[in-house]
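Q: I'm writing a short explainer about DUF1272 domain-containing protein for a general audience and would like to include a description of its predicted shape. Could you first generate the structure from this sequence?
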Amino acid sequence: MLDMRPDCERCGADLPAQAPGAFICSFECTFCAECAEALDERCPNCGGELMDRPTRTGKALAGNPAVTSRRFQS
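A: Of course. Here's the predicted structure. Afterward I'll give you a sentence or two in plain language.
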């Protein structure tokens, strides 16, 4: 199951699990749309392709909440 990380690893932007606009690689590195575009849709950590992260809403989100630990390092 996806961690649904709460922020962009590059700029720290909030990325709620229920909202579109997050991009992930196969290792779940997570970036906002602006950073994914700036990175040419390639993960700077593993070189993998960044893809749209699915959203999680309603009962699915309530039963399987997003993680709260943030990845952005200022």
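A: For your explainer, you could say: The mean pLDDT is 94.
Q: Perfect, that's easy to follow.
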